[in-house]
Design goal:
Helicase, Ruva Protein, domain 3; 2 domains; two-stranded antiparallel ribbon; elongated
Length: about 280
């Protein structure tokens, strides 16, 4: 038996009651299936689903109820002004990371022609957001995973951002002999034994993009210790980190000689991005 858009969403919302956003999840899944936007769903609540549409939607809802992230089910995630393709090879971009983008843009005049780097780019979210907003800048985006880098390249094409260069390799390896006015990174920062890794969306995301040692700071230590060799005088290093790691990251940056060390809070009021200037 088929149902209307309104009925299908109501039933899906009930099945997704354990989600933090059951209505939104249901709407995004149905939008994906019907290739419509959420405004269309509200304008056409009496539209009857076909039998095939009903079956596919129920399967998507069942998979979401079992814990699969909406972004992986739809293959898309909005970030900044971008619509990004995501796959199980990439970390799902999150609104918290826009805090890093906002700070980076504050450091660069709109018509600046600077050299930027995004290390561990994943889906390309940071690099492409900066490249789009600062079209005269040259952005290098790196990732150790070739599969991940292929997704980032595709996202550059999909979003028509042409000033980003994608290079394979771990952290600083692809940057040999080059210096940048700003280096940004959203590295793994979850402690290896954190119980959250076995819950929610994190169960489906690539472990290598999430966990980093016993305290979650192994990769941040590496970045703080080595970025200066690839920064131009006065260049900035910006690092995303966990809500409770701000003090530790500030201490690392100060210890390695960065100046003007500070932390920005995300939309939820949590310390989320710390950075410093090399001089």
């Amino acid at each position: 038996m088929t149902s209307t858009v309104q009925q299908a969403l109501a039933a899906a919302q009930t099945r997704l009651a354990e989600s933090d956003t059951p209505r939104l999840d249901a709407e995004l899944l149905l939008c994906h299936l019907l290739e419509k936007n959420r405004a269309w769903l509200r304008a056409w609540p009496e539209r009857v689903l076909t039998a095939d549409e009903q079956a596919v939607f129920e399967d998507l809802v069942a998979r979401r109820a079992a814990g699969e992230p909406v972004a992986y089910l739809t293959g898309r995630r909005a970030f900044w002004s971008l619509e990004l393709k995501v796959t199980p090879a990439t970390l799902i971009p999150r609104p918290d990371t826009e805090t890093l983008v906002e700070w980076a843009l504050e450091l660069m005049p709109p018509e600046a022609a600077l050299n930027l780097a995004d290390l561990g780019t994943g889906s390309g979210a940071i690099a492409l957001a900066l490249g789009r907003e600062r079209h005269r800048c040259r952005v290098v985006a790196t990732d150790v995973s070739l599969d991940t880098l292929a997704v980032a390249r595709e996202n550059a094409t999909l979003n028509q951002v042409g000033n980003v260069e994608f290079l394979p390799g771990s952290w600083f390896a692809p940057l040999a002999g080059r210096r940048f006015d700003l280096i940004a990174s959203n590295p793994p920062y979850v402690a290896a034994g954190d119980p959250h890794l076995g819950r929610g969306d994190l169960r489906y995301e690539p472990p290598g993009a999430l966990a980093s040692g016993r305290d979650g700071l192994d990769d941040i230590r590496l970045l703080a210790a080595g970025a200066w060799a690839h920064l131009a005088p006065g260049g900035w290093l910006l690092l995303e980190h966990g809500y409770d790691q701000g003090a530790a990251v500030r201490e690392l940056l100060s210890r390695h000689g960065y100046r003007e060390v500070q932390t920005r809070r995300d939309g939820g009021g949590h310390e989320r991005v710390s950075g410093g200037r090399w001089s």
